[in-house]
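My main concern about presentation is that the manuscript never shows what a single data entry looks like. An entry of this sort, consisting of the sequence and the corresponding backbone structure tokens, reads as follows:
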Amino acid sequence: MQSQVVGVTVLLLLILGATQSKHRAPRRYTPDWESLDARPLPGWYDDAKFGVFVHWGVYSVPAWGSEWFWWHWKGEGRAPYELFMRNNYPPGFTYADFGPQFTATFFQPDDWADLFRAAGARYVVLTTKHHEGFTNWPSPVSWNWNSQDLGPHRDLVGELGTALRKRNIRYGLYHSLLEWFHPLYLLDKKNGLKTQYFVSSKTMPELYDLVNRYKPDLIWSDGEWECPDTYWNSTDFLAWLYNDSPVKDQVVVNDRWGQNCSCHHGDFYNCQDKYMPGSLPDHKWEMCTSIDKSSWGYRRNMAMASIASEQEIISELVRTVSLGGNYLLNIGPTKDGVIVPIFQERLLAVGKWLSINGEAIYASKPWRVQSDNNGTSVWYTSKGPDVYAILLQWPENGVLNLASPKTTSTTEVTMLGLEGSLKWSKEPLQGLLISLPQLPPSAFPIPFAWTLKLTGVE
């Protein structure tokens, strides 16, 4: 009898413990990297895989050189920029004079959102403020240097967010911590960063305002490199973001929160612009790159030689996802809010490819092997028991040799976008040999990057 009582007591304690753990308060993160880095990555971001980056600001008015126009004009490499200004603008023209010309006259947020959805983007990241300091929303701490008081007289951040969310596209906000020529930032630097006048009156109020006002799914921080995270108060902000903000459960952030933070702290790592690892990293990462290889902002002097081809973009997307990353592809609209046709064409090409091959991309995971390079470049992804082999080149003899998959008696090979199974054989010395469809690559809807689905493999 006594043993029965003990058994019942233990059972009740287990049930009580399970009930309490179910209703236990969520974890509180403390403002230090050890605690913040322990936060699990919200699943939506890893599933999304593909996003569109939008660089848009006053630099879109001169639209020459790059989005760093002001810095080069007044700082490093100024000679060609001074010549450009002398040839195109009257004497005494200042950077602030570009502000009223940033009109966004033809900005139609619903059209943008439709384009991004057609491109297959699962999230979009908009520059709310670049290093020039101009804000694309009515920031209360950016008086007369924001899109509501000057230029468009519109809340660009809010309008695009509304359009994206109607289409179930996640919304990310890019924000630069620094401003090149802000007097308070220059004062803090002059004081050896022993003061934080700029952080307390500009940077942090903006970040809190963006989160509370627009409830972003992602914060893409930048402009961190001159100062440590202790100057920026980054960990205090992130602890609030993860614990108490209106987006605490779904928001994700990158790794640019102070000197030496890149590739070390954050929900996902950018490491550096156009970063591509050589092997599978052990932390979630993102490759950000631009259709215009020479600039992130729109340039009037852009030439076709600097435009990434459809094949280059899709090949980078495939490699990125195979290595466990997300692919963030940038465009720069004009000062009027027009996305020029060449950028639209590239985005729509990605969307067309994803409409056929998205099964191998969205919500996929890296496989045990990331690539085979035995004459044909092949990258692998997986989803549950299924393995996807994405060919970046069509073998000359029409037979694909895969060294890594181990077949079983139930193995089946199909090509996404085509009906029917493909013939295959297993050769002891050659591996898995797959007979591809007897069609020229040009006969396919997308004449590159074909996806084979392998079921029943070990």
